[in-house]
User: What shape does this take?
Amino acid sequence: MTTAAQTEVPHGKIVDNIVHFARTLRKAGLPAGPSSVVDAVRAVEVAGITNREDLYWTLHAVFVRKREHRVLFDEAFRIYWQSRGLIEKMLAILSPVAPPRGKPEKPKAGQTRVSQAFQAAKERMSEQTKPEVEVDAKFTVSGKELLQAKDFAQMTAEEVEQAKQALRSLSLTMDKVRTRRLSPAARGRIDPRRTLKASMRAGGDIIDLKFRKAQEKRPPLVALCDISGSMSQYTRLLLHFLHGLSEQRRDVHTFLFGTRLTNVTRQLRMKDPDEALEACSAGVEDWSGGTRIATALHEFNRVWSRRVLSGNPTVLLITDGLERDTDEDLEREMDRLHRSCRHLIWLNPLLRFDGFQAKAKGIRAMLPHVDEFRAAHSLNAVEDLVKALAGTSIERGPKAPKDWLREAG
Assistant: This one.
């Protein structure tokens, strides 16, 4: 009975659906080329179609080549074959009763990117039928400029996706610093050991001086991100920036804190950004809750400082400074953190307000122990941070922390 049902399925429609499905995968980021489409059609012809699971694993064996591809493939298969309804139509020949629908599931990793791939195909088809309209944009403001200056909390869903792509594409090139390790060089200090070995190999008649100098490398980067209710939207977007940096460099360490401290460095090193952010959310129990900055900094200084603060790192402290703990504890932990790193930069979204003043007790306790006090509410603010870390001069330079304290009285 199953074999007869399989032979009644039109062969041409199967091929068309597999071709369109492969195009969707390619737009979502999977390397689904023409050869993969041919292999997929042949695999379906050999394996046959008996149920949804058989088709899933047949196509999975062809298109999924890396671990990070599975998330996108799973979401694309669920959306595409459900919308097209191909499998249900074929199985309807065997069973007149449609399978019951379960409860709607929450969005999964990769769903946004796959949905965008479908939407792009629909928009391209609709654009082909629309008449061309010329618009004079001579006196209008660029949409990109508006997005660059817009507050993360005021962005629409489409703008948030564009901001995520922009943040992941930022490249950070930090100034190199000297280390204690020495390496061979053409000039510098004399290296006695290498000089003696070279002289012995030459018979002791000729002394060929060898030199060495201190090695230079880019300092590590450590990020401490507040995930309390007031910081949730900003931290989610900044995590995409940190994910992009983690792909470029291996010496980026990220910690999340609300009422407790969580190390998410390993999760952010996943290749797929959606999968990485989902893993971060799954590993944190106090997201969008309260915040205890002093407690989190105390745990970081006690447990993690010796592990990740070697090599004169730059520390990014991302929080609004609205603290519930005592000011004495917060000031002591901030002082210890400041002494343990090369550069401590505080990124505070509250600086987006023109009338902001450092009057809160928590902010006044933290400001004396930071090297820079910067905004972190827009793409322009993040780009300014990248330029400052790279040693490039910028026009929108921040005020010094002591100036904020002086203005607040």
Remarks:
- The two ends are 86 Å apart (CA to CA).
- The chain has three domains: 2-97, 178-217, 221-408.
